[in-house]
Amino acid sequence: MESAKETLFILFSIPFYTILIGTEVVISNWHQHKYYSLRSTVENIFLTLFNASVDLTLRTIFYLGILLWCYQHRIYTIENHLLYWFLLFILEDMAFYFQHRIDHYCRIFWAVHVTHHSSEEFNLSTGFRSSALQPVYRFIYFIPVVFLGFHPIDIVFMYAVTQTYGILVHTQYVKKMPKWFEFLFVSPSHHRVHHASNIIYLDKNMGMCLIIWDKLFGTFQEELSTEPVKYGLTKPASKSNNPFHIIFHEWIALFKDFSKKTTFSNKIKYLFMPPGWSHDGSSKTANQMRKDIS
After folding, report:
1. In sequence order, what are the residues at sequence separation of 6 or more whose Cβ sits closer than 8 angstroms to the Cβ of residue 140?
2. Is the pLDDT of residue 9 over 70?
3. Taking CA atoms, which of 7, 75, 169, 188 is between 20 and 30 Å from 123?
4. What is the number of helices (H) and of strands (E) in the chain?
5. Burial status of residue 11 (CB atoms within 10 A of its CB: 0-12, 13-18, 19 or more)
6. Rounded Cα distance, 4 and 24, in Å
7. 3-state secondary structure of 254
8. How does pLDDT run across 125-151, given as a tens digit for each residue?
9. Distance between CA atoms of 184 and 65, rounded to whole angstroms?
10. In angstroms, rounded to a whole number, what is the distance separating the alpha carbons of residues 273 and 283?
11. Residue 238 falls in which region: left (phi positive, over 0), alpha (psi -120 to 50) or beta
């Protein structure tokens, strides 16, 4: 199910992305920065196509079914057109922030989201390195927004628009934006921090468009000139050239931890505690690692 607005937006965005990424590839090679490799770019394309196929498959159930049912039982109807779209932007962006934060702080969801962080490159095509199974549960975060009076089709359209912005911040060419901009909005500098494997940067800057959520809820971190960003995971996935391993490698690791000889309570913690948690201290969470270096 797609609205006419979303279809037109997608038709416009495909050539836009193609030209933009092509330009960055040319400039990158011209300056010998080597921000792109063929292998990683092909992986990114595969993963976004995989994500799109899952998304389209599930839309009938989640958008025609669950979210439309919720909309029929909404508690408000917003008549003012401008106010409607402004509030939808704010609420959808906030919903994304909390979804993204849980993806980082709950290991079973991290097992889905880790795909997006597995590349050691950072460029515009990295924005397409989709968490392939995320459409299975993403709709849950939209339910409160629907109950507040926002139509599911409009939410899908707004999500597509904000995702476009989220893709554009995956670049190393924009160093810093003006201070007023970086006070309110996610910048490429902010998002470089988010993709870093440096301990100080782990699990920071979760916002899609607005950085204010990170500043309000304690997950903001400035990019530091004294701490150059290292992209990728703290423990890179083996067989990283296999797209299916990229998608499922954390599930395999999670299953191994769940299978350890320990209490049932600890097994459940391996599912829901932050990535890196262990019952015996053999591995550590981002916060534990930060305490060690402080």
Report:
1. none
2. no
3. 7
4. 13, 0
5. exposed
6. 30
7. helix
8. 999 898 888 988 999 999 999 999 999
9. 35
10. 12
11. beta
pLDDT 10s digits, 165-199: 999 999 999 999 999 999 999 999 999 999 999 99
- Dist CA 147 CA 67 (whole Å): 9
pLDDT at residue 210 in the model: 98
Identify which of 220, 234, 224 has the alpha carbon closest to the alpha carbon of residue 186.
220
Report the SS3 class of residue 35.
coil
One-letter amino acid at 183 equals F
Residues of the chain with pLDDT > 70: what percent? Answer: 94
Can you say whether residue 265 is alpha, beta or left, with left for phi > 0 and alpha for psi between -120 and 50 degrees?
A: alpha
- pTM equals 0.90
Contacts of 30 (CB under 8 A, 6+ apart): none
- In this prediction, residue 1 has a pLDDT band, given cuts at 50, 70 and 90, of very low
Record the tokens describing residue 31, joined without a space: 């300056």
Calculate mean pLDDT across residues 205-224.
98
Q: Which two structure tokens, joined as six digits, stand for 246?
A: 């990229």
Helix axes 81-105, 107-117, angle to 10 degrees: 100
Of 57, 85, 59, 48, give the one whose Cα is nearest residue 162. Answer: 85
What amino acid occupies position 177?
M
d(CA 10, CA 12): 5
First CA to last CA distance, the chain: 50
Q: Where are the domains positioned within the chain? A: 4-217
Which 3 state secondary structure label does DSSP give 202? coil
C-alpha span between 273 and 251 (Å, rounded): 14
Q: Residue 185, SS3?
A: strand
DSSP string, 73-95: T-S-----HHHHHHHHHHHHHHH
In this predicted structure, what is the pLDDT of residue 24?
A: 80
